[in-house]
Amino acid sequence: MAEKIRPVRGMNDILPDEAAAWQHLETEARRVLEAYGYREIRFPHVERLELFARSIGEDTDIVEKEMYTFEDTGGEILALRPEGTAGCVRAGITNGLFRGQTHRLYYLGPMFRHERPQKGRYRQFHQVGVEAFGPATPDLDVEQILMARRLLQDLGVEGLTLHLNSLGKPADRRVYREELVGFLEARRDSLCETCQERIQRSPMRVLDCKVPTCQEAVAEAPEITDFLGEESRAHFDRLRALLDAAGVPYELNPRLVRGLDYYTDTVYEWTSDQLGSQATVVAGGRYDGLVEEIGGPSTPAVGFALGIERLLALVAPERVPEPHPSVFIAPLDAAVETDAMALAESLRDRGVSAWYHCGGGSLKSQLKKADRSGARLALVLGEQEQAEGTVLVRDLASGEQEALARREVEDHVVHRSS
């Protein structure tokens, strides 16, 4: 026997018993997002490395340490997408979407980062992503926050908290950065090695470090909201007023900075107290300069991402509908297979989910499989039924059964299935 080929670490198979939960989540996401006017967009899993270096930031951990990159046969340096926003923006620029119109877009699919695999965090992970392009006003930010909450609540997620911050404009951050670097340099020895490297390169990331000594060291750090310019202050105040009016409680979190360079003004996270240390379920914010940074026209934008694997851990199994057929068709011998298959196809033509049993077997063994399938009815055809022009219809819940004329069976099943 040949040696087994092992799966790539951190990249998981999704088996049929698990896929029902994925399908349920994806269906609910599409339903909620489309109710708010968002439309699906699909774009490649592979992009030029330059796209992510320019959008996410060359000095970020994602670009420096976590990207899956390779050189193709034409000599181009490509990368598997580590997040969806940059690819969505690139697709919008390529296809001329940003010409003054408002676009509400969403996507679902895998992302790739070479991180240390752990529960809820994998090297191939999946996201629902939402992006809106057009208005720079805070009502669009609030609409997305409400939309994310609605999806989480409809999926039955409990213990939700909204964390909120503003990063201001790039000019605001430059002033804040100087103040923060001075503060951190004075406490360099109290920081972990990673954060010491970040002081000059990406100082705001130090605020988000989960190492206890780092958290203690930055407890008195200056807060970026004290450095907001007039425009960003007005945006943040209006956003908070709209949330208050909508009855959405939130916690101001000056340590919430996000790990991507393109964010401006609003940043937020929805967390759940059901997830332990990996509490974030939805993360998002505004990125008004990204479209222009990638080569498009100046276009304000705001979006969020939802981690599917992490969210699935919060969806109760009883909320996930189990896929099962309406009828199970059991042919008892080869002589009736043609008629049994024709019956199955005719029922499917009328919208009935019909599972046809392939491979033969005794009546007893086929009825056991029918029970396991979750079907309401079993339709049994043998040589006797074929000769009499009948089909044996068995109610799998009660065990009651009756022989019906072949011409009556379809109407009977359609009625029972409606």
From TrEMBL:
Compartment annotation: Cytoplasm
Reactions listed under catalytic activity: tRNA(His) + L-histidine + ATP = L-histidyl-tRNA(His) + AMP + diphosphate + H(+)
EC nos: 6.1.1.21
Domain of life: Bacteria
Broad EC category: ligase
GO terms of biological process kind: histidyl-tRNA aminoacylation
Domain Aminoacyl-transfer RNA synthetases class-II family profile: 1-323
Molecular function in Gene Ontology: ATP binding; histidine-tRNA ligase activity
Keyword Ribonucleoprotein annotated: no
Chief place where the protein resides: cytoplasm
Keyword line: Aminoacyl-tRNA synthetase, ATP-binding, Cytoplasm, Ligase, Nucleotide-binding, Protein biosynthesis
Cellular component GO terms held in the UniProt record: cytoplasm
Binding, L-histidine: E83, G84, T85, R113, Q127, E131, R258, Y262, Y263
InterPro entries in alphabetical order: aa-tRNA-synth_II, aa-tRNA-synth_II/BPL/LPL, Anticodon-bd, Anticodon-bd_dom_sf, His-tRNA-ligase, HisRS-like_core, HisRS/HisZ, HisRS_anticodon
Family: Belongs to the class-II aminoacyl-tRNA synthetase family.
The protein's assembly and partners: Homodimer.
PANTHER family attached to this UniProt entry: HISTIDINE--TRNA LIGASE, MITOCHONDRIAL-RELATED, HISTIDYL-TRNA SYNTHETASE
Protein name in the entry: Histidine--tRNA ligase
Species the sequence originates in: Thiohalorhabdus denitrificans
